[in-house]
Amino acid sequence: MRPLTEEETRVMFEKIAKYVGENLQLLVDRPDGTYCFRLHNDRVYYVSEKILKLAANISGDKLVSLGTCFGKFTKTHKFRLHITALDYLAPYAKYKVWIKPGAEQSFLYGNHVLKSGLGRITENTCQYQGVVVYSMADVPLGFGVAAKSTQDCRKVDPMAIVVFHQADIGEYVRHEETLT
User: Fold this and answer.
1) CATH 2.30.130.10 occupies which residues in the chain?
2) Rounded to whole angstroms, how far apart are CA atoms 104 and 98?
3) In what order do the strands lie in the sheet with 140-146?
4) According to CATH, what is the number of the domain 2-88?
5) Residues 52-88: pLDDT tens digits?
């Protein structure tokens, strides 16, 4: 368990900023205490400093995980967000997409969101912008990347992809043996 290097921090914050924008500061300086990011086995954990001090007594090889896993660094040093970060990204999300009940199951199985399944989209969403996907009942389902801007979504074919799938809460079931 070690702090992130400057390069790792930059790469991770750029990825998170795609979803939360300038609200990134609210993740670190929270009213219930100070939180930080730590790297352990190529995975980035979001943990309170209080728990971090308690974990200092445990050796690194015996420690499985600590806090909430936000994502992991790939072999090529790119950062990939995990679905476990959704609960922390959703309240601060700058751009949101709501999908119709009929499209929820398709999204939760790992498929992209089509125009026919799109319920609402935040105004001024740019193409390739990170978005958090919600059900029509405002339950966060996952996150992805906008394939089309808000203006393009209005005049596109109903079978066109409007959100590229990145992660969804169905991964808890589909990949439960690899999530830590």
Assistant:
1) 95-175
2) 10
3) 113-114, 161-168, 140-146, 130-135, 96-99, 118-121
4) 3.10.450.220
5) 888 888 887 787 778 899 999 999 999 999 998 999 9
Helix (H) or strand (E) holding 46: strand 43-48
Q: How many residues does the chain have?
A: 180
What is the reported pTM? 0.86
Tell me how far apart the alpha carbons of residues 93 and 52 are, in angstroms, rounded to a whole number.
26
Q: Which amino acid is at 97?
A: V
User: Which of 48, 40, 37, 47 lies closest to 12, judged by CA?
Assistant: 37
pLDDT in tens, 6-61: 999 999 999 999 999 888 888 878 888 888 899 988 899 999 888 888 888 888 77
Strand, coil or helix: what is 177? coil
- Token readout for 131 is 């978005």
Q: Which residue has the tokens 């339950």?
A: 139
